User: Fold this.
Amino acid sequence: MPFDLLIVDDSAAIRKILQRVLQKTEMPIGNIHEAGDGLEALAVLKANKISFVLSDINMPNMDGLQLLAQIRANEDWKAIPVILITTEGSQTKVMEAAHMGATGYVRKPFTPEQINNVLAGLTGSPLNG
Amino acid sequence: MKQLIDSATIVMMVRRATTDVLSTMLAIDAEPGEAYTEILPPANTEGVVSFVGVTGAEWAGTGCLRCGSGSACQLAGRFLMTEFHHVNDEVLDAFAELTNMIIGNMKNDLELLLGPTGLSIPTVIYGKNFSTRSLRREEWIIVPFRCGDDLLEVRVCLQERQSKFSVTRYGKKQEFILGR
Assistant:
């Protein structure tokens, strides 16, 4: 069954790059939804069945950690894997994200291989970029 | 005001962050040029400038990327694998994200020396004849990078937060403390 993904980043450039990376994997991908911040992401989650969320942390209106808290607090969404993709690289932030229930963490700048490796860990099969 | 970290350390952080981001995301081997400092505001310019605020418990500052509009199109084109002939929203967005990544990575190094640090959302400006000013006369460290035919400047200003200073009142020098 194809996976429907949600990319959350206030940068259209990063959303475009991630779209390209995801489309080059062998992962069976259905729809790729986009949101510019946490609030927009919640609206997408309400209207669609999402398999994975890839989210930035630093965003206006609602940041990635607040979004993660909302996802983990919702019965329907709490099992959705959430990968944080961010420039925030401090040990404190990584630990905070892990304690809040993040599934994975990728630091910007990233290579397509790094994204593929994280997704492969989720699907349990190697993905070629 | 005193400088928090010596210039050589900041230059090293900027070089590491910039070359890392440009090689990983744009496949560009950027050549760092000789760093220098500037107090006077830069002359009127043409091109793209973006700013990100960085702040810690006892200090604050700004990181900035600056280049000509042709170079901004080239860098954005490498970033998004698209050709750009003029500056548009996509170019500005890509430039803002590059700033976020470069200054964000420098911030990660700064945190090891100065403790928890926050980063603002980037602001990007494009124009043909504009100048930028800081409200205070502070020293900026400028690290130029040659990226093929293009030149990119990364500029950083970090200062300790001024929490108290002296004022002269009724002929007497008194200390004035800013609450925070």
Observations:
- Residues 3-123 of chain A form a domain with the Rossmann fold fold (CATH 3.40.50.2300).
- The CA atoms of residues 82 and 109 of chain A lie 18 Å apart.
- The longest strand of chain A covers residues 29-35.
- Strands of chain A lie at 3-8, 29-35, 52-55, 82-86, 104-107.
